[in-house]
Amino acid sequence: MRVEQLGDGEPEIAVVGGIHGDEPCGPRAIDAVLQDDPDLARPVKFIVANEEAMARNLRYVEEDLNRAFPGAPDADTHEARLAHELLAELRDCVVFSMHSTQSYAQPFALCDTVDALARSACPYLSVDALVETSQFSEGRLIERDEVLEVECGLQGSDQAAENAERLVREFLAAVGALPGEPHENREVPVFRMHRRIPKQRGDRYEVLVENFQRVDADAPFAAVDGDQLVADEPFYPILMSAYGYEDVFGYTGELVGKLDAEPEAEAEADTETTA
User: 34 and 149: one domain?
Assistant: First the structure.
């Protein structure tokens, strides 16, 4: 694990990349910001997490780090020990964690539940959506309070790295660490994960719908070896991809509201409205 700091004093903000070793966008964004050496108004800690997996270009060495939290110092796996060390580095910090995906080319954010950090930062990030993972957060870093995760784009792409660098700068401006006006306020739809979509055994998989676009009941949404799967009820696809996961296509979701830079009480009320 590599840890570097910009700004003087004890950091209350942390930027994390490289939780998965085959997702280079976060480390590339961190290196770009460190090289630029901006004059920060608040000290920030930058962390490249799973360097061993990165060196091997593997998602993980022994187990998925983003399913291994909180870990333990004497755990059996590299990632469980690393999870414990990483949480110690993140103590008392608000956290911005970068990933990439095989399901969606544009950035979107994830949190356990919509909290003060998500409400205050997301409207100033160039993201298409915010996803509440809630019941699917176990073992993930976002299960911890005050953590915002972003999927920066397609895994391994230059565009994902460019998106990640832009998002880091937008986040640092939103939390008052980078001087200047925050990114233009945007209205961000909020979705909540509902259930996994299992993937049957097959040789050829297809996804027939777009993530975050409503799928009507009785509409085909995926296919296995040419046989279509049909929705039994309306849903919004989240993290849907043909080959991104071994045993699931992705998740069904519901649209639960929106975020913009309103007073906190109003924004919170918006996210309590179910579609």
Answer: yes
pLDDT at residue 45, as a whole number? 98
Q: Are residues 143 and 223 in the same domain?
A: no
* CB neighbour class for 174 (10 Å; exposed up to 12, middle 13-18, buried from 19): buried
Task: Report how far residue 65's alpha carbon sits from residue 228's, in angstroms, rounded to the nearest whole number.
Answer: 34
Task: Tell me the one-letter amino acid at 249.
Answer: F
Assess contact for 3 and 49: CB atoms under 8 A: no
Task: Answer whether residue 265 shows pLDDT above 80.
Answer: no
Q: Do β-strands 94-101 and 13-17 pair in parallel, antiparallel, or remain unpaired?
A: parallel
Tens-digit pLDDT profile for residues 178-216: 987 777 788 999 999 999 999 999 999 999 999 999 999
For 90, phi then psi, to 5°, come to -90, 0
Strands annotated E in 82-187 = 94-101, 108-111, 130-132, 147-154
CATH assignment of the domain containing 16: 3.40.630.10
Domain count across the chain: 2
Bridge partners for 147 per DSSP: 95
Residues 49 and 80 in one domain: yes
Whose structure tokens read 């990030």? 125
